[in-house]
């Protein structure tokens, strides 16, 4: 896989999987030894990156860690 116009790629080692959310592919991070840095979670591996979940805004605890969601819009009022 090559990134658009960059002439750089991931060597074919990182692939995406289809998920039901918004019909877009999910990105699954490689394990910590492949990535070269520690990833929080069970076994040091991030399972999936959820794309496009707008709510709840702010910090919330999901039982494994704190997640943050930010709105790109400025509050009015």
TrEMBL record:
> Where are the residues of the annotated region Disordered?
1-34
Q: What is the E.C. number?
A: 3.2.1.-
Q: Which domain of life is it from?
A: Bacteria
UniProt keyword list: Glycosidase, Hydrolase
Name the enzyme's class.
Answer: hydrolase
One MF term from GO for this chain? hydrolase activity, acting on glycosyl bonds
Q: What is the name attached to this protein's record?
A: Glycogen debranching protein
Q: Give the organism the record lists.
A: Escherichia coli
Its lineage reads: Bacteria, Pseudomonadati, Pseudomonadota, Gammaproteobacteria, Enterobacterales
